[in-house]
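If it is no trouble, might I ask you for a protein's amino acid sequence along with its backbone structure tokens?
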Amino acid sequence: MNATKRRRGIRAACAGIGAVALAAALVACSSGGGGSAEADEEVSLKGKTVNMVVPYAPGGSYDRLARGIQKGFQDASGATVVVLNEPGAGSLLATNRTFVSPPRENRIQLLNTVGVVAAQLAKDVAEGVNYDLSKFKWIGSFSDEPEVLVAAAGSPLAEPGGVAKALKEGRTLRYGATGPGDNTWIDAFLLRDVLGFKIEIVSGFDGAPDIYSALLRGDIDITMSSLASALTPITAGDGAPILYVGSDMKEFENAHKILSEIPELGEFIKEVGISEDRYETFIEPYSALLKVNRTLVAPPDTSDAQLEAYRAAFDEAINDKKLIASSAEQRLYIVPKQGKDTEAVIKKSLDAPGEFVELLKRSFAKN
């Protein structure tokens, strides 16, 4: 072969190699994986349909929050937001679906943060946990409502020192709850295993309104619920708040003047002589979760650019003064946190103390 032919062969080979490399680069750029061009470019939600999933039936507080933010999210993003109710398995059914949802479905979901974190930490005994919260993309959180212990108004437990007296005397208290995984259920185990109350759990209720009806009938003695749920019987004069756990109640004093008079659980622990170490081991990690309860997440494969689009729309919608005021009228108190702050709390919660994890496992174990 002469020199001219050799040069032509080399040029042809180089051209072929270049074509292959270019084709490979184009394939990599067009794929939907983590190295997609979308990850480096701004994503617009304008003209798209975003499915905002509520893992409970219509009418509850999660549903009302989703529908409350729906228009603001649409206005901020340019997307059409559809609220989908997908109840089942204590919210785990919808959460499992969202975990495997491809980004093109534009599916985001409200989470009962306490419930899903508790279920994951107790997954050795909790059934139906097919997600990993450390892999979700966190858009933000709606509120940091505390949990409130409530007794029927006029009962001995509602008198000053009444609950502390019941604890000291070893009186068995009938406690109303929905079922494993729900905040009301976990609260019962905190009262029993951490504070030493003798608790008979009466479960199977459909939700807080059903539980409070049982409280007024005298079928149960106490229950714990979110502030939003507790305010209905408190405002009506049928329920008496005893103590709270979670965020500083000063943020919510305008909801009802009596709330400024009830102690935080840490104060109650000191009053009855329980070791402060138990507060740090059990109550502090639980309180941290309550401060980012009712969160909004996107599936794990959501690109950074798509996540930022969700976060921008959420931040604009959730901080609207009219939304905050109208929600407060419905006894839904919005104290939002941004996605990065929410994510930091969740990751810390997943590294909870071993004793707290064991308590959660006991709460999920079949009795």
Notes: Residues 29 and 36 are 5 Å apart (CA to CA). Residues 1-39 have pLDDT under 50 and may be disordered. The longest strand covers residues 239-245. The two ends are 86 Å apart (CA to CA).
